[in-house]
Design goal:
This protein has about 270 residues and is mainly α. Helices cover about 80% and strands about 0% of the residues.
Length: about 270
């Protein structure tokens, strides 16, 4: 009964808080900030890993785990960006840095609404966190690259000694299913724990992240199935079809993300009442 009560409360709050409108806002700001965000990300990672041309395909693999229906056109445009030099280049960097923070601000505002404004961060703290968002994601990506190198070295070492079971598992089940799910789980848990104003217990953030990761994985397969079995889906949008599909996916994913935030809030209140 406790689970049913939490879900019922979450659904009611989802409607009362206008989470669909908040999801639409997140989608809009995501479209505005995604190209500057990816460009700055590959620029930061490129300093440590390699040139931007080498980093973009690697970054794209992880971005596709979080935004599986991202348009190839977006990634292509990122690779074509040339900021030039001089004062205009610095102005462009400042503009792109500001644009890349819009998605963080939108998510923070939405989570503040979901948690009923229990705690509000000072404006300057929110701005510092939004500007640090891209560098932190860049550091996470560098860690993932190191992890991949370690996994590959482990597989080669096992193959050298004739142990094949572990490499087969890592290459098939691990990398295809478990690793993407864990990546989403960690990313979503971090969003709930860090971006939400106020104190969020790690267990609560983990519960929300786990439910959200499972729901997103199911929604991804349903959304992909709909597109495959409706080849004329989005035909009315013409050349904008891929962008519209990406926008729709971000909207649905944002709605799921906010619903799971409502679950965290309802679960927390349930514990407080008990």
């Amino acid at each position: 009964m406790g689970v049913i009560r939490v879900l019922k409360k979450s659904l009611l709050s989802f409607k009362e808080d206008g989470c669909l409108n908040l999801s639409a806002a997140i989608s809009f700001y995501a479209i505005l900030s995604i190209i500057p965000f990816i460009y700055l990300l590959i620029s930061i990672v490129g300093v440590f890993v390699g040139s931007k041309g080498e980093v973009l395909p690697k970054v794209s693999v992880y971005i596709n785990q979080l935004i599986p229906f991202i348009s190839d056109q977006v990634l292509h445009e990122v690779g074509r960006i040339n900021l030039g030099s001089g004062i205009f280049a610095w102005l462009a960097v400042v503009f792109m840095l500001w644009s890349s923070t819009l998605i963080f601000d939108s998510i923070e505002f939405s989570l503040t609404r979901v948690f009923k404004g229990e705690h509000l961060r000072p404006f300057w703290v929110s701005k510092i966190m939004s500007f640090l968002f891209v560098p932190v994601v860049g550091l996470v990506f560098i860690f993932l690259q190191i992890f991949n190198l370690a996994v590959n070295a482990f597989i080669m070492l096992n193959n050298y000694f004739g142990i094949t079971l572990v490499p087969i598992f890592l290459n098939s089940v691990g990398l295809k299913y478990i690793f993407p799910l864990l990546l989403n789980l960690l990313f979503l848990t971090a969003l709930y724990a860090i971006v939400t104003p106020g104190k969020i217990i790690f267990r609560e953030a983990m519960i929300g992240g786990f439910i959200c990761a499972i729901m997103l994985d199911i929604a991804k397969h349903i959304f992909g199935w709909m597109i495959i079995h409706n080849p004329n889906f989005g035909l009315v949008y013409g050349s904008l079809n891929t962008i519209i599909l990406m926008l729709m996916w971000i909207f649905y994913a944002s709605a799921i993300f906010l619903f799971c935030a409502e679950v965290i809030y309802a679960y927390r209140n349930r514990n407080n009442h008990e």
